[in-house]
Design goal:
- This protein is α/β, with parallel strands linked by helices.
- Helix content is about 40%, strand content about 20%.
- The chain is built from ten helices and twelve strands.
- The strands form two sheets. Strands 1, 2, 3, 4, 5, 6, 7, 9, 11 and 12 form a ten-stranded mixed beta sheet that branches. The chain has a two-stranded antiparallel ribbon with strand order 8-10.
- The radius of gyration is 19 Å and the shape is globular.
Length: about 300
């Protein structure tokens, strides 16, 4: 009997089309052992074409039942793994965007880190953008002071101390983080199930921040593993409308912070946060064209 793959790769598509091919082509060299790949589609117009592409690479393609956002799509992919591939019982899930290209050996490197760090719950690779620059994918959990400084200055003064503290961009070494970018990370399957997967109230953005926080609350750590490398090309269609995505980003930021500071006596703070984030969303989208834009959490 063939052993069950130790890793299942879960991703979400929405009118992704041919841009998923580089991702699927990179999976085989990223792991020295077979992995299962499940693609949950969030209502693409070209589902049949996507299914044909996926199956040509040995991936399973399922419909999520509608546009459930990123976290909802990943949760749907995990459900499909149980229903469609019941004999696959992976130790780990690689949660990833479909516009990521995995470097050779990158999945192996994440699994090795997980095997030697039993207290670790989730493991994030070094994520490069399409220019080869390191993306700040392993960050501190947002605090009020750091968050305000980052929100106020990051757009025109990226080197400000609040953004640098939040991004931790200077620490490209293996280390613990408050949360890991949802663009690509490995998590123990048992832990992901224990936590109930992603919180689907976050349609887009901050679902990974929320998950990282819950990993910590469960007594596990989020670990940055820069020896594993992937490239996020930014080709995925979730960012086809920059204005809409910026607005959704700010809504999710308020949802996260209002829950973090949810004591009844903090209601004035929540009012200020809502107003401030609403003003910032209007400001950053005032000249926003309908053009591709990467995640900029």
């Amino acid at each position: 009997m063939t052993a069950s793959p130790r890793v299942a790769v879960l991703t979400v598509t929405y009118n992704t089309g041919e841009t998923i091919r580089p991702f699927l082509a990179s999976v085989a060299d990223a792991s020295s052992t077979p992995v299962a790949v499940v693609i949950a589609d969030n209502g693409s117009a070209d589902l049949d074409a996507l299914r044909a592409i996926g199956e040509s690479y040995g991936a399973t393609v399922v419909s999520s039942g509608g546009n459930r956002g990123y976290g909802g799509g990943i949760d749907a992919a995990l459900t499909a793994l149980d229903d469609v591939l019941p004999d696959v019982r992976p130790d780990f899930l690689l949660v990833t965007n479909p516009d990521v290209v995995l470097a050779p050996g990158s999945i192996d490197e994440l699994v090795r880190a997980a095997d030697r760090l039993p207290d670790g719950g989730a493991f994030g690779p070094r994520i490069l953008d399409d220019q080869g620059e390191t993306y700040p994918s392993a960050r501190q959990l947002p605090s009020l002071r750091t968050g305000l400084g980052h929100a106020a200055f990051s757009r025109f003064w990226p080197a400000n101390p609040w953004s640098q503290r939040y991004w931790s961009t200077t620490q490209v070494v293996e280390r613990e983080a408050g949360w890991l970018s949802g663009a690509c990370f490995l998590i123990r399957t048992s832990l992901f199930r224990q936590l109930g997967g992603f919180d689907e109230s976050y349609f887009m953005y901050f679902e990974d921040v929320d998950l990282g926080q819950r990993v910590g609350r469960a007594g596990r750590t989020n670990v940055y593993v820069p020896s594993a490398v992937v490239t996020h090309t930014g080709a995925h269609s979730t960012s086809s409308n920059r204005r809409r995505m910026e607005i959704e980003h700010h809504r999710s930021a308020y949802r996260y912070l209002s829950r973090k500071y949810r004591a009844w006596w903090l209601w004035p703070l929540r009012v200020v946060l809502r107003a401030g984030l609403s003003v910032r969303a209007r400001w950053v989208t005032r000249d926003a064209p309908t053009t591709p834009s990467d995640r900029q959490d």
